[in-house]
Amino acid sequence: MLAIFDRGIYLPELDVWLDSLRKKDSCVVSHAHSDHIARHKQPILTPESGLLLNEYYMKSTPISLPYYQTHETRNHTITFYPAGHCLGSAQTLIQSLDTGEKILYTGDFKTRRNSINVPFELVSCDTLIIESTYGHPQYTFPETSIVLDIAMTKLKEWLNHGMRPVIYSWKLGKSQEILDYLQSSGFNVFLEQSVYDITLKYLESGVVFKNAINRFTPDSWPEDSILICPPGKASSQITKYFNRVKFMELTGWSVNSGRRFSRRADISLPYSDHADFNELVELVTTLKPKQTYTVNGFPDLSEYLRNQGYPALHLSSERSNQSQGHQMKLI
Ligand SMILES: [Zn+2]
């Protein structure tokens, strides 16, 4: 199956668009992060993604497709499977009605489990289109429990010294995973407004957190609690109101030694809502597709796979320079 990358993925034989960043008549939207969406006339997405994007798609006519249900068109079917990345995130299985060929687009995915996300599921396919955000061998992450132990120890240390810990985190996905870990470890947690609003949508979708959800305002942040806040707003606004603030960044990019202690955080630890390099490779070697396309990340993954004997090609548009990897612009 031929696949083309042009600010999104296009399957010309079936006339299917996936995660296009330009407005289309019809397009699969794998999840609600802003680097995967545009104001399509008819987005095809999970009900949970629809809930997160209900204002964004107010003037559209979305097709709401729950996991495991199948949407049929004149020449193909579409079925979503959990991707383990954030609320509503989906892998998309497309099957040609003419040839029976199965094409799987992973979208952003995470194979490590937690108690917030619907777990990633293995889906067999003939052609695999795999996101390769961390598709370079330097991006292998330690065990999650090790990283979290270090994070919790550091947060306790800061609180014991009268510091105010702030965790930088994108508002959809990672923030809710971290909130769950912190609440499970007995921390009192407050959420910046945008993180709070999205966490309410998790609750609306039936996700259960250990304790109540607290909204941050400058007047209502107790000294013994932790704040989760997206990057950008935090440093400019929080430090204006509070002294003795300490910033922790949790990101897969921190395994790059040059970024271990980023300029914007006091400590940067490798925690991600994406698969690392080994997990990307493991998915391909497990599924053994006839053809693999890598997208949205380092091209090194496809080269590595070819050297291992797997037919693999990196999809990129000529205009975009992807040699430096994909820098995420998430909502
Ligand atoms: Zn994403």
Describe this structure in words.
This protein is an alpha/beta fold and 331 residues long. The protein folds into two domains: 4-139 and 274-314, Ribonuclease Z/Hydroxyacylglutathione hydrolase-like (Metallo-beta-lactamase, Chain A, 4-Layer Sandwich); 144-269, Rossmann fold (3-Layer(aba) Sandwich), CATH 3.40.50. The protein has helices at 47-52, 144-160, 174-184, 193-204, 233-241, 277-287, 300-307; strands spanning 4-5, 9-11, 16-18, 26-28, 42-45, 63-64, 70-72, 76-82, 90-96, 102-105, 127-131, 164-168, 188-191, 225-229, 245-250, 267-269, 291-295, 312-314. The protein has a seven-stranded mixed sheet, covered by helices on one side. The protein has a five-stranded parallel sheet with strand order 13-14-12-15-16, sandwiched between helices. A hairpin with a 3-residue loop joins strand 7 (70-72) and strand 8 (76-82). The longest helix is centred in the middle third of the chain and has 17 residues, at 144-160. The protein is globular. 44% of the residues are buried. The site of zinc ion has 4 residues, from loops.
Quick recap:
This protein has 331 residues and is an alpha/beta fold. It contains seven helices and 18 strands.
Topology:
Layout: E1 4-5, E2 9-11, E3 16-18, E4 26-28, E5 42-45, H1 47-52, E6 63-64, E7 70-72, E8 76-82, E9 90-96, E10 102-105, E11 127-131, H2 144-160, E12 164-168, H3 174-184, E13 188-191, H4 193-204, E14 225-229, H5 233-241, E15 245-250, E16 267-269, H6 277-287, E17 291-295, H7 300-307, E18 312-314
Parallel strand pairs: 4-5, 5-6, 10-11, 11-17, 12-14, 12-15, 13-14, 15-16, 17-18
Antiparallel strand pairs: 1-2, 2-3, 7-8, 8-9, 9-10
Bound molecules: zinc ion.
